[in-house]
Amino acid sequence: MRGIFIVLMLICLIYAVSIYMIGSGTFSFMIWIFGAAFFGTAFYLSGNRRWYRIPLIIRGLGSAAVLLLLVITLVCMALMLSHFNDKGIKDLDYIVVLGAQMRNDGPSTIFRYRLDAAFDYLEENPKTVCIVSGGKGPNEPVCEGDGGRKYLLSKGIDQSRVIAENRAMDTYENIVYSLEIMDHGRTESDELKIGIVTNNFHLFRGIHLAGKLTDHNICGIAAYTLPWYLPNNMARECFGIVRDLGKMRF
Question: What is the CATH number of domain 94-247?
Answer without folding.
Answer: 3.40.50.620
